[in-house]
Amino acid sequence: MVEIEEIGGELRMERIGAHSHIKGLGLDESGRAKQVADGLVGQTRAREAAGLVVMMAKEGKLSGKAVLLAGPPGTGKTAIAVAMARELGEDVPFIQLSGSEIYSTERKKTEVLMEAMRKAIGVKVRELRKVYEGEVKELDIKMGSSPYNPFVKVPQEAVITLKTTDEEKRIRVGPNVARQLVEFGIAEGDVIMIDAKDGRVSKVGRSTESFSYDLEAEQLVPRPDGQVLKEKEFVYVLTLDDLDRMVARRRSGGGLFSLLFGVEEKEIDPEVRAAVDQQVKEWVEMGRAEIVPGVMFIDDAHLMDIEALSFISRAMESELVPIIVMATNRGITKIRGTEIEAPFGMPLDLLDRLVIITTDKYSKEEIGHILKIRAKEEGVKLSDDALELLMELGTKKSLRYAVQILGIAGVRIRSRGKEEIGREDVEEVARRFSDVREAVDHLRRYEEELLK
Ligand SMILES: Nc1ncnc2c1ncn2[C@@H]1O[C@H](COP(=O)(O)OP(=O)(O)OP(=O)(O)O)[C@@H](O)[C@H]1O
Ligand SMILES: [Mg+2]
Predict the structure, then answer these.
(1) Residue 404: CB within 6 Å of ligand 1?
(2) In this structure, are 190 and 93 located in the same domain?
(3) Number of compact structural domains in the chain
(4) 19 lines ligand 1 (CB under 6 A)
(5) Residue 345's closest CA among 331, 327, 355, 326?
(6) Average model confidence (pLDDT) for the chain?
(7) N or C end of the chain: which has fewer CB within 10 A?
(8) What global pTM score does this model have?
(9) Got the DSSP string for 267-292?
């Protein structure tokens, strides 16, 4: 369906490669976490808590609150946030950003956050449109001189006979529709749809009733039933940010410069956003749209400064907000932009609104299990002693490091045409890549030398 594809924005899934094995929170009907399920291993208390939060969100009881995942590095904070989004459903947007990403020379911090927030709110729009739909039985296109150039022939009008299982109708269409018929190469036997109002043509496929020479390329569809002229429902899923951009473009449109060079506004006018919100609310009231709140995940939340954090507390109060999930691995630390020390580096008014979930370090067995799941996800085999070494790296350094080394070792064996990752592959890769602590020590040594 060409029309739906043209208008619909796709939902953005970002940077979740390392978490692609996660399908959900892995809870049973009573909300209890199974030791291993949906790609998740252990961390049962946090998963159960996350399950309750998802339930609250579904019942609309999370308003005015945000979730904070607090725990040491590599304990699955990001993994659990991803799982929560998966639990909420397929169409649910998931936006991930790091607390450090709000600092940009080009845009205000609050603008970056606002945009992320609006990307995390989906709007499912239903639209009833009158369309002519049927299998093309006869098609007669009349060509005439172009109004701009008398030597060029262009389609001027067309008479089409459309057939459904119930009726046959002849319609005459003007140059706009006729041109699209030629452009799309519409022929007898195609099933097409023409929007009754704006005349947009889309090819649905090739009718199963007709004979086709080109067997491979065409999608076969049954001859439509019912009347030729009918009301059809279309569903598009967009985000508030998509709508903002559409409205902003329309408003700034007309200017020759923007038309020729397609300049994108860096910042969206608050007025545009207000207009979009108003419009969406009207659609919801009319039953034409449904809001699908997604998850906005802010990793390393302690990197946000007081201004950004206050913005988040305020935003939580508004009606159109996504589920805000933050993660941090800091305990008591300075609130950025102030001299005040506070839990997680967050101001009191925000702390008051947090639902806190803590994550604990994994046992060696759990790390082993997670690594096995990752190996399967990446389609590589692991020898027992390679797994053993990775488990050691996971416990001594961090799980994140071990998962990374596993990924790189997978690339290494593939380039050598080997099937299985051996201990020596892990050793070789681990020798070449440092973990954070080693890298920091390394730089510190150089700094010390410089100061001597
Ligand atoms: N319980 C788990 N089950 C399965 N996989 C997990 C689990 N916990 C973590 N992982 C995987 O291990 C890797 C590291 O975990 P993750 O990035 O979620 O940790 P983190 O707590 O967010 O760390 P950091 O503080 O460094 O951001 C990821 O690939 C993640 O998908
Ligand atoms: Mg993380």
Answers:
(1) no
(2) no
(3) 3
(4) yes
(5) 331
(6) 87
(7) C
(8) 0.73
(9) S--HHHHHHHHHHHHHHHHTTSEEEE
